[in-house]
Design brief:
This protein is of the alpha/beta class and about 260 residues long. The protein contains eleven helices and eight strands. It has one domain: Alpha-Beta Barrel (TIM Barrel), CATH 3.20.20.70. Homooctamer; tetramer of dimers.
Length: about 260
């Protein structure tokens, strides 16, 4: 993609926690696939869903339905396990984002160690790419991780923004700016290697602008915050507001750059 600062920033909406609410009681309500349709109508460019080993939120049936019922790209977040590889190869989502996964964690804690796990990850990247699935690695804003992603043959990296968001929430201005600089530098480095750059984790209305103005970032993936806001304003409204903030930040970046 050329002219990074001039293109529209894509929004991927993660619907995992609609499924979390459904699973708290069982049954079929609320339906995450219905949430996916609403998100698309409100301006989402794609849908993200994480099929975990313990199926705590998204289920196999959800992935099967999403694969055939939505008319936007599906980004399947998955651990690098044989079970998840088989599911991805069967459903052939537009993209597969390989993430670290620990059974006891509440949410994904930090980025994947692509450098340390290079040999293990090679087969997964190769088999997914081999049938046309775009492979993304969810990694920290570090050059060694970007180098590993490029070496593995991944087409995309998704930079973990959780620490930046935590520092912003804590009111640590200097720490927030240092972390944002780290993300900026990593995004520029990744793009120089020919990698497409995405970002996500913990982004809110208050923090999305800082990441949205980074010219090399072409997609943001946001989930938990939007589902939480939907309780108060509705999912349509939450997605539209996030879309508007992202677009305004990108326009501002383009006009300044």
């Amino acid at each position: 993609m050329s002219g990074f600062g001039l293109g529209q920033l894509r929004l991927g909406v993660n619907i995992d926690h609609v499924a979390t609410i459904r699973n708290a009681r069982g049954g079929r309500h609320p339906d995450p696939v219905r949430a996916a349709h609403i998100a698309v109508e409100a301006g989402a460019d794609g849908i993200t869903a994480h099929l975990r080993e313990d199926r705590r939120h998204i289920t196999d049936e959800d992935i099967a339905r999403l694969s055939v019922e939505i008319d936007r790209p599906l980004n399947l977040e998955m651990a690098a396990t044989d079970e998840m590889l088989e599911i991805a190869l069967r459903h052939k989502p537009h993209a597969a984002c390989i993430v670290p996964e620990k059974r006891e964690e509440r949410t994904t804690e930090g980025g994947l160690d692509a450098a340390g796990g290079h040999n293990h990850l090679q087969r997964f990247v190769s088999e997914l790419s081999g049938i046309g699935i775009r492979v993304s690695l969810f990694i920290e804003a570090e050059e060694r991780q970007m180098d590993a992603a490029a070496s593995l043959g991944a087409q995309v990296v998704e930079i973990h923004t959780g620490r930046f968001c935590d520092l912003a929430l804590a009111g640590d201005g200097p720490g927030r700016e240092r972390e944002l600089d780290r993300i900026r530098n990593a995004a520029a480095y990744a793009a120089s290697l020919g990698l497409e750059v995405h970002a996500g984790h913990g982004l809110t209305y208050e923090t999305v602008g800082g990441v949205a103005v980074i010219p090399e970032v072409v997609e943001l993936n946001i989930g938990h915050f939007l589902i939480g806001e939907a309780i108060f304003s509705g999912l349509d409204s939450a997605v539209r507001r996030m879309r508007s903030l992202m677009d305004a930040s990108r326009v501002r970046q383009a006009s300044q750059g």
